[in-house]
UniProtKB/TrEMBL annotation, chain A:
The gene is nuoE. The keyword Ribosomal protein does not apply. Binds 1 [2Fe-2S] cluster. Keywords: 2Fe-2S, Iron, Iron-sulfur, Metal-binding. One of its GO terms (molecular function) is 2 iron, 2 sulfur cluster binding. PROSITE patterns: COMPLEX1_24K (PS01099). Its cofactor is [2Fe-2S] cluster. This is Formate dehydrogenase subunit gamma.
Amino acid sequence: MTAIFEPWNETRGAEIIAEHADQEGATLVILHALQEAFGYVPEAAIPMVAQALNLSRAEVHGVFTFYHDFRHKPAGRHVLKLCRAEACQAAGGDALAARAEAKLGVSLGNTTADDRVTLEPIYCLGLCATAPSAMLDGRLIGRLDQKRLDALVAEAQR
Amino acid sequence: MSMRLYVSRDAGAVAVGADEVALALEQAAAKRGVAIEIIRTGSRGMYWLEPLVEVATPQGRIAFGPVTETDVPSLLDALASNTPHLLRLGATEEIPWLKRQTRLTFARCGVIDPRSLDDYRAHGGYKGFERALSLGPDAILNEVTASGLRGRGGAGFPTGIKWKTVAQAKADRKFIVCNADEGDSGTFADRMIMEGDPFLVIEGMTIAGLTVRASKGYIYIRSEYPHAVEAMNAAIAAARRGGYLGTDIGGSKQAFDLEVRVGAGAYVCGEETSLLESLEGRRGIVRAKPPLPAHHGLFGKPTVINNVLSFAAVPFILAEGAKAYADFGMGRSRGTMPIQLAGNIRYGGLFETAFGVTLGEFVDDIGGGTFTGRPVRAVQVGGPLGAYFPRALFDTPFDYEAFAARDGLIGHGGIVVFDDSVDMRRQARFAMEFCAIESCGKCTPCRIGSTRGVETIEKIIRGERVHENLALVEDLCNTMKFGSLCALGGFTPYPVLSALKHFREDFVPAPTTLQAAE
């Protein structure tokens, strides 16, 4: 299932920020909420967050760029994450990652030219006893093999 | 009377089709007009058998697994007619892999409905809390200290001492923080317990709150664990409804409440001071210690920060007494440790047992060797910052000191098995690369050292001045080990140096026969 995101809208963004601004240490909470609504954190939202939390723009930008999760532009229609950590490496994850890159024609961390699929590395989904593992649009897949990977890639490309 | 079935809702089971199996069971039963009730539990931790389906019988639960959607019709036939089935494993509790364990922390995981406070209470839940209420802070501290419990996140610091420091600190507010940023590859115990027995974590944190007189707690869960976030939020809401969280917990007139905060994909936030920074809404930059979080923690206030498994061990200690816990284990490692068997392993999963079992027993005997059937060559213990062990060191017992004596660490109890196709140069390179990706950037040895480490190991892989570069890597590791601010830079040398030491043949090419010059 593809996630449906709203297009960026300043009023809606301000609402989301106001909803969480009263919490202690709210920066991450707000950035998560913005990304959940819009699929990324629009640059225009950064000064708005700063103002709401009485922080400098640089501070909020610093938080935004520190964490791997936050996107500065929308991802592809589907996001395929492949676990690249040791337990999955031990179970043949390297070859599967190379196969996914070849099939999609992009390297890990990139989006296909038609904006359909974003392929990303992830460092551990905690499914280490059923490795290798992957996540397609939030759905978990364990015991990945060539056949299952090919099916996932085909599903993502649809 | 309807037939009661149990199917796990654990992320590890769902990833291999547990949802599909549960749905197929419902549909097939409806079609046949058979009344069934499916309880979605946590996982028993036997992941090679997932999706595991259990059925309630007067003699206890009978297990079947691994079940696929296509097995469902024949499974229902067998259950209806009480005839044998190929996937029948017998009584769940009698499965040797489960029976050999000592499940203190994970006693309820896979057994109860993690959404049900009543089920938790019916299985001994909140007994520890009730005893804690009657004991009062000083006596709770004595119990936790006497149990010998040490921080299960990896550092192994005595939990009782940490709590006592916070209890004695004077402040207008104190906090309890649960570190659920389980980023180590090969570990999933925190995830399993949060998904399978979330009230246990809540109970443990509540007892900590009573002890140090803190009224607010945070559970910082990594964003890679959406199922755990959902399970904890649901349990917190249920505990509030049941009067176990809020302004008057369990009729004690004391207030304690919890909030889940979600990380954002930064491994370093598993380091406690970095986690506190992140909770405060900042970049996850490590703080220099001292001051300790116990004195100057979240929002500058005295804070108990412990791993999920540390909090989860506390209710048993309070309910059954410190001695019941401390009677298990060896040396200064008391109680049980949930060991996680992962990677290229035949019987992967969670095995909780007293300290003292050897690495070889876990890998060969309990784990059954590799999934691929090839010989085991290397085993990484304790996550990305843990050492690689060769077979020659398989007699090392699980004990904080025994692993340290062999230049390793037990960390969070993860064991990742590699077969003989592993190239240890690549694993050493990856350790440095991971450190470079995840470094918070505050201290130079970690930030720069890891990148130089990747470059130097790449030169070795290309065969450039191998001996010189090996010496350079060793020197660099020394700098990182002693010069880094936290365990990320400080422990990355463990996998690198252990690979160099125990698997030297992968780094130094075998001498080739000299060719006569033309």
